[in-house]
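Minutes, project check-in
Item: structure for the 806-residue chain
Input as provided by the requester:
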Amino acid sequence: MPPEQRARFLDEQCADDRARRAQVEDLLRHYEAAADGFLQPPPAPGITAPAEPGPGATIGRYTLLETIGEGGTGIVFLAEQKEPVHRRLALKIIKLGMDTKQVIARFEAEWQTLAILNHPCIAKLFDAGFTQDGRPFFVMEYVPGSRITDFSDRHELTIEQRLDVFLQVCDAIQHAHQHGVIHRDIKPSNVLVSEEDGKTVPKLIDFGIAKAIGPQLAERTFFTEQGQLIGTPEYMSPEQAELSGRHVDTRTDVYALGVLLYELLAGVAPIDPETLRSASFDQICRTIREEEPHRPSTRLSSLDDAAGAVASARRRAARSAIVRTLRGDLDWITMKAIEKDPARRYQSVSSLANDIRRHLAHEPVTAGPPTAFYRIGKFARRHRPLVIGAAVVLLVLVAGIVTTGWQAHRAAEEAVTSRQVSAFIRDMLSSIDPARARGEAVTVRDVLDDASRRLRNSLPDRPRVRAELHGTIGNTYHAIGAYEAAEPHMRAALDLYRAELGADHADTLSSQGNLALLLKDRGRLREAESVARNALGTAERKHGADSATAAQLTTNLGVIVHALKRLDEAEQLYRRALEQNTKLYGEEDRRTLIAMTNLGTLLMDKGDDPSCLDEAEPLLTRCLEIRRRTLGNDHPDTLLSMQNLAALLSNQQRAQEAEALLREAVAAAERVLGPTHPMTMRWSKNLAVALYMNGKVVEAESILRGLLGSVCRELGEHHPDTLTALGTLAALLTATQQYEEAEQLARQCYDGTIAAYGRDHAEVAHAATLFVDLYAAWDKPELEAQWRTRIEGAPSTVTTADPEDE
């Protein structure tokens, strides 16, 4: 910071803390005294400065052949290596006179970044070192390709071919994000494309301004971005143009990829580069933050005749045909990727890539409006033979109905319940109609509350229909985290099923199992166990131990027993449920995946035995792999698998991998489920733990403080998730020497745990360890000894993963 700004800065930061201010000012005086001449003797007379290396020079074991690139601080040479292998490489070195601490830190961060990335579409790092005059260099794969836009135009790639190449770039960026690296300068010149063995292969280069979101690189890159415009303006996100760097995350790369996609599709950038180049610094930043671009199809159709003809020829189609191709999915996808507000953007690169894959497969995209006509049109294109066949079958059915009216009458009688349920739900959903909503935003909760009011006086003579509707509304309330509103509907459904079908019917038992899971989520674990155990016993007696009903209820009871921390009993239930569901439905069915996940999380919680973690990892990895492939990255089940695998990685001390996975899961959950959904809040807590393990204490504490108020308000002060949040924040405050507040939170956690579980439960002993750790750090040995006696012999518990239910 310039010296003239320091006094005001210290006034703001130190306030009345005179001791801290004196310490900082003392450090500054030493810094200024050391800065003049420290290890910097003047050059001796007659000695000239070293010259910049050029073609023919050698650096280490590399001979420079020619200059192939040059930036403000570095030069890239084509170099040749002869031993131990003969090959051509790219060697990057800092320019003479540019070797400041800041530039060297960024340079070293770039080679550290390349060292941790291993993807076929990212240029590989082979070597790094320092020249004789102390300048750092590194050697990487030489990519003899051309810019992605130039390559696509020169080879006249069609829109579909361009999307295929773009998807490879997305996979490379997603790989970087999973390893804690944000590129921050994605643009055509940093994506070089060549042909290898007849295939088009893009290579991502230049991580010189990458931002690390993992601990190994974060310190190297933090000081390079304050108050500087980092990136290339045409491809820079609005949050980069804010200059603070505080809001830059993986969605920044999503924006740049959206700009790149826009240019590949329309042939021009969304913001005119000439406008940016001729603008002042402030105007550039304001334009990036505020100017809303046209859709790609609109931009392409507005080109003059000459430019339009060039764009058409380079895409091997008439301009009108290209415009039709872009309208709809590709317009929506591109515009969502370049949303000014990061919260409205795709929350991950994989989400962007998945939407493009859906478009190519003629499936509905998440960026598109979910109208009935849109989805029906997509289905018809994807299943054209099936649709034609269905039309033929429909004609045959109509003819059959004419000749067999008595069968139709009988079928109508049997289907009356289904029709009435459908009619009620259709009327319920009509509240979303703009004519009825009157311009107001309608939430799922609004629709459910309206349906709940209507159901009170609807269908009094149709108890079976009312039972199904109560169950549907209750389960939906449960799914969105509205537990209190869900319970009356769950109980009404169960009472109606019992009265109409009997206590032994499969529908009654399933309703009973759903109520048990709701009670578990409301923190009433003993009541939940009683309801679930009763239902399972009845199902096994009346329907058989291997029936579908028994399999579902075995899973549900296992989840509740797991929540009660009876791990051995829960393991037996989970293993039985996995065997039952695999036999009934196969490995990739949702019910089997739930059982697979539950066994994995249970083994993780028994992680004192290393063999348990070894068995858990393939179960959780396999489950996530299947769900990513079959459901997509934003599906709640996929998000739950991400969280569970992240919990395992944390237990294996692989905190960086866990953090990357949790960031993706939490960002998607906030969008898909909402920030106050119980699952979102639970995963946010786990993200805070991973951040703390990675040394990001300030961010972790900020998340936990914000979370604690939300979880207590939404779930209650004695809910297990509230207690976990209290304990986690107390442990963090202990580690950061905020002892008084840590003691207060530990007391709340301990008292709440007794209220929730009973005084003799193992979880109470676990809560007591908060005081042992606190008083040990606080140097209060008497209090530490008192609390240590309370936990001797008590089992340890680790609860970071989420068992699943049906």
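Outcome recorded: Residues 610-631 form the longest helix (22 residues).
No further action items on this chain.
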